[in-house]
Amino acid sequence: MPTASPSILSFARTLEPSHMLMFSAPAMTSPVSEMVPVTIREEPLRGLNATSKTPLEKRDQAILQVVESSELAPGHEVLVLRGRLLVKNRYATPQACSEPGFLQLHAEVLEQVKGADAGITELSTRYAIQIACGMLGWRNFLTAQRHRMTVELNSEQLDFDNLLRDEADPFSLDMARYEAYRRGLQTLAGWIAEALQRDTGHGTMLRLQARYLLGLGARVYPSQEWPSEDQKRASQRRWPGGEGVTRMLAKLRLPDGGFQAIINDRKAGNALRQIDTWYPDAKPNRPIAVEPYGANSHEARAYRRTTGSMKEIIERLARSGPPALSREDRLFYTALCIRGGVFGGTDE
Fold first, then answer.
1. Strand 259-263 vs strand 251-253: parallel, antiparallel, or unpaired?
2. Residue 51 CA to chain centroid, in angstroms?
């Protein structure tokens, strides 16, 4: 039965990662007692105007900048990320929905995803591969010589040593690259799937630890943040003559007054949901993050700008019911409900 498209449809986050705290360690096998927090420092730089917008008469002038930077402790060669991931069934029931008739359609889509589509198994497998392959490290992963991922649930522990995502078909466990760790990946996916389908309780808490071999004294890459005008002015007072801090890194204050570098929870969540290979004209080996319009900031492009956007799928579902959605549509819709956010048929 057709219903009006909801102007408001919101979900709480189902995958709730913590900040990933950054530690420096002497070696891949170093115990926790030998780890020290990765700290952040201000670094004054003398650079040149290098943008195309710089007036011609200023292109040879030096500029004074301040950036925040971070590196491993002296004598250390391993970056360690430590955090947790809470998985709780929050996608089944919207926090808010302006059209009560849409709730039944939402439930029917999830029933198909959980049943005939085997969609929860597929989504859980994709999340598991993202975790096991160390994608939470972002640029640190790209600059590592090797990595090791450890996932703990209660007294059970899974280890994935230097597991790399298969470039030809990233999310198929049938690929030879995953053969040695297939059982561990299936176990991890099972933990996530069980939590996604559990109706009650406090959710499942996974403890995560990633180690990346970067080399002695290597630079590390926390999340970046946008410096406010107040922060820029404060930086100018500390470093007179310059334009203030232009690059700020994500951090938490330590008891001694220093700052520990982190990959913030939003960046960690973005890494987890880089599983969308269902977007229009998709390249199977180029997964993007699950976003309402398929936005990819690295390419300055929205792959779901019109067709296949969350807005268009909601409108199609309200107008014609679940048969109007393909299996790929249903998986994307469910993954976006798991992501959480405020959506609607008129705006997002």
1. antiparallel
2. 30
Give the Cα separation of 329 and 259 in Å (integer).
43
CA of residue 30 relative to chain centroid, distance: 27
Bridge partner residues of 149 (DSSP): 160, 210
Q: Which amino acid does the sequence have at 246?
A: T
Amino acid letter, residue 248: M
Extract the tokens encoding 217: 């004294």
Kindly state the average pLDDT of the residues 301-309. 90
3-state secondary structure of 163: coil
The shares of helix, strand and coil residues in the chain, as percent rounded to the nearest 5, are 30, 25, 40
pLDDT in tens, 167-226: 999 999 999 999 999 999 999 999 999 999 988 778 999 999 999 999 999 999 999 988
Task: Give the pLDDT confidence of 29-38 residue by residue, as tens digits.
Answer: 999 999 999 9
Indicate the residue type of 151.
V
| Residues 72, 79: Cα–Cα separation, whole Å | 7
55 CB burial (10 A radius; 0-12, 13-18, 19+) = exposed
